[in-house]
């Protein structure tokens, strides 16, 4: 058994070992070298994310139709040009856009106008259009309606819905009203007048009649759709409930040949087995039985066939036929 002095020496040795290990650990922490970089993780709040620009998908836009100077087509031509320019040529120079517009002006009176504009641009004249709006203004001044507002007012007073749907009528009314200068109550009255009687009456007699032109547009289209749908359903159910009409054919008063009576194929043909049935031979010269007219010894004159009755004539011609057949065989 160890004495107390030995135990005390062991404790001191362990204490010194622990102290040495702590010193070595402290030195390693102070002299630590950076290791190889590890895999990069996702960026945090301070990370920089590269910006990737994604091009928007291309939109198919219809190009304008060729403009040849017809004033009725001018508004649609300008609208089509503006839509295409805003979606396809937004970043192009004004000069390029003007040249593109002029490429769709061809033929008729518009051809000479285009040549004049091109010459003004090439010569750098002050009156040459420098932006697209100036080019559109020149088109309106040369080919537009001289009194566009008066023309639109006249059309607005004459337009009627008729058999068109409310959607079609509203779009046409809006297009004309845009150039008429009408607004407010005057525009509402013209629209009410142009509607079909059933829609106008239904809206005016409703619990809350429309008060603005927009509400008149929306409610007239909604009411017209409901009416057309109800009419289509009613027509569908009416056709489904209709009873099919059976056509009866009245036969004409024509002669129908009677069909011969069918005979039993297994029945015995007694008549055929017995041979043709013949009555007694009768002379049509003397009228006696037992001989034919050619063998008649009587001096009586031959009877006129026309004096015979129906049965006698039938028998007469039958006998004559049989005699002819008999003579041919002989």
Describe the structure.
The chain has 330 residues and is mostly helical. Among the domains are: 71-143; 148-239; 280-329, no CATH class. The protein has helices at residues 4-30, 74-88, 94-102, 108-122, 132-143, 148-158, 166-177, 184-194, 197-204, 213-241, 270-274, 310-329. 10% of the residues are buried. This is Transcriptional regulator family: Zinc finger, CCHC-type. Keywords: Metal-binding, mRNA processing, Zinc, Zinc-finger. GO terms for molecular function: nucleic acid binding; zinc ion binding.
Task: Compose a concise summary of this entry.
This protein is mainly alpha-helical. The chain has helices at 4-30, 74-88, 94-102, 108-122, 132-143, 148-158, 166-177, 184-194, 197-204, 213-241, 270-274, 310-329. Helices cover 53% and strands 0% of the residues.
> Based on CA inertia axes, which overall geometry fits?
extended
Question: Runs with pLDDT <50, length 5+?
Answer: 270-275
User: How much is the average pLDDT?
Assistant: 78
Number of strands: 0
What portion of residues belong to β-strands?
under 5%
Helical fraction? 40-55%
Secondary structure category: mainly alpha
Rg over C-alpha atoms, rounded to the nearest angstrom: 59 Å
Order of helices and strands: HHHHHHHHHHHH
The number of helices is 12
Main β sheet profile: none
The separation of the N and C termini measures: 175 Å
Region (Disordered): 27-52, 248-276
Pfam families: Retrotrans_gag, zf-CCHC
Keywords: Metal-binding, mRNA processing, Zinc, Zinc-finger
Protein name: Transcriptional regulator family: Zinc finger, CCHC-type
């Amino acid at each position: 058994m160890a004495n107390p002095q030995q135990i005390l020496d062991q404790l001191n040795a362990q204490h010194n070992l622990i102290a040495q290990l702590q010193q070595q650990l402290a030195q390693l922490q102070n002299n630590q070298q950076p290791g190889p970089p590890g895999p990069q993780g996702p960026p945090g709040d301070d990370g920089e994310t590269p910006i990737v620009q994604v091009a928007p998908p291309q939109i198919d836009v219809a190009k304008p139709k060729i403009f040849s100077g017809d004033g009725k087509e001018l508004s649609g031509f300008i609208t089509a040009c503006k839509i295409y320019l805003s979606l396809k040529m937004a970043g192009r120079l004004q000069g390029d856009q003007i040249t593109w517009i002029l490429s769709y002006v061809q033929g008729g009176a518009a051809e000479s106008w285009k040549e004049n504009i091109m010459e003004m641009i090439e010569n750098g004249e002050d009156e040459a259009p420098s932006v697209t709006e100036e080019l559109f203004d020149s088109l309106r001044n040369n080919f537009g309606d001289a009194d566009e507002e008066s023309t639109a007012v006249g059309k607005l007073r004459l337009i009627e819905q008729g058999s068109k749907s409310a959607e079609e009528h509203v779009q046409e009314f809006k297009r004309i009203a845009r150039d008429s200068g009408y607004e407010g109550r005057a525009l509402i009255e013209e629209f009410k007048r142009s509607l079909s009687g059933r829609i106008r009456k239904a809206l005016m007699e409703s619990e809350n009649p429309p008060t603005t032109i927009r509400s008149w547009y929306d409610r007239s289209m909604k009411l017209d759709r409901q009416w057309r749908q109800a009419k289509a359903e009613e027509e569908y159910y009416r056709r489904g409930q209709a009873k099919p009409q059976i056509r009866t054919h009245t036969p004409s008063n024509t002669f129908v040949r009677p069909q011969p009576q069918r005979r039993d194929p297994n029945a015995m043909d007694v008549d055929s087995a017995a041979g043709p049935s013949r009555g007694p031979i009768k002379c049509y010269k003397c009228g006696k039985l037992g001989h034919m007219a050619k063998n008649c010894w009587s001096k009586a004159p031959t009877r006129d066939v026309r004096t015979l009755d129906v049965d006698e004539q039938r028998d007469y011609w039958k006998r004559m036929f049989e005699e002819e057949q008999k003579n041919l065989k002989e």
